[in-house]
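A reminder from the course coordinator: this example appears on the midterm review sheet, so study it carefully.

Given structure:
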């Protein structure tokens, strides 16, 4: 694959990444390490992070793993403290922990709705808040992984749509409140990314060809597309970008392209 960014674009940076073991956020974590960042990756179960840690260390990167449930503020606070103690600082926080499943609104339980909101929205706030003091010291930045589901309407996804709308609100508000401390807060809203487990589970095979024809650029996204967007936003090239949720979907949301 063509090298888009200099290999040392994040040299010396420390990135704290939730949901960093697999999927889109795992790709972002790996890309950050490949471009010089030292990683701390977070999951509820530390063993879920072993494969990513091994992959990063295999190409000479540094990867620290820590267990924390983003829904529990005290656990997140402890994970931030362990990371700061291990590396001496935190420069970048990536909020990628998320929950999702297909369910019609009239079949969705309050617990199911609340669980997704707790992981995505409350979890994002918990991590941002717990990392504030470290990011203030480093004049660091936050990158929140969002979605485009709530821009129009996506059937079977009311819980995730509500949760990601909350994530976008957090991005905007914190960018305004914390910008004066030198902290930039941005987001990425991926469209349909075909090489993810979520896409395989959520997209019915018979709809795949129909959906791709509706994407203006004529293809599904891939995790590398999100990696490149994240590298840009995390780099000095985006030093004046703040409060933006960058849509990476080939233009599909503009035509109302839905997964359903």
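Designed residues:
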């Amino acid at each position: 694959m063509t090298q888009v960014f200099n290999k040392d674009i994040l040299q010396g940076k420390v990135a704290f990444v939730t949901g960093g073991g697999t999927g889109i956020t795992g790709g972002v974590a790996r890309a950050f390490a490949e471009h010089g960042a030292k990683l701390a990756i977070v999951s509820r179960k530390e063993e879920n992070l072993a494969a990513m840690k091994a992959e990063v260390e295999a190409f000479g990167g540094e990867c620290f793993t820590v267990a924390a449930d983003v829904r529990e503020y005290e656990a997140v606070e402890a994970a931030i403290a362990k990371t700061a103690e291990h590396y001496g600082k935190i420069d970048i926080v990536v909020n990628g922990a998320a929950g999702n499943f297909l369910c019609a609104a009239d079949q969705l339980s309050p617990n199911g709705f609340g669980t997704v909101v707790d992981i995505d929205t409350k979890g994002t706030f918990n991590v941002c808040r717990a990392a504030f003091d470290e990011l203030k010291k480093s004049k660091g930045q936050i990158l929140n992984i969002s979605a485009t589901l709530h821009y129009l309407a996506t059937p079977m996804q009311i819980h995730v749509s509500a949760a990601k709308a909350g994530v976008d609100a957090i991005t905007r508000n914190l960018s305004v409140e914390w910008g004066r401390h030198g902290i930039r807060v941005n987001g990425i809203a991926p469209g349909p990314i075909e090489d993810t487990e979520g896409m395989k589970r959520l997209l019915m095979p018979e709809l795949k060809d129909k959906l791709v024809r509706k994407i203006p650029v004529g293809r599904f996204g891939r995790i590398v597309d999100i990696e490149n967007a994240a590298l840009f936003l995390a780099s000095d090239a985006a030093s004046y970008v703040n409060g933006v949720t960058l849509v990476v979907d080939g233009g599909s949301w503009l035509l109302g392209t839905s997964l359903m």
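The longest strand covers residues 184-190. The domain at 14-244 is CATH 3.40.50.720 (Rossmann fold).
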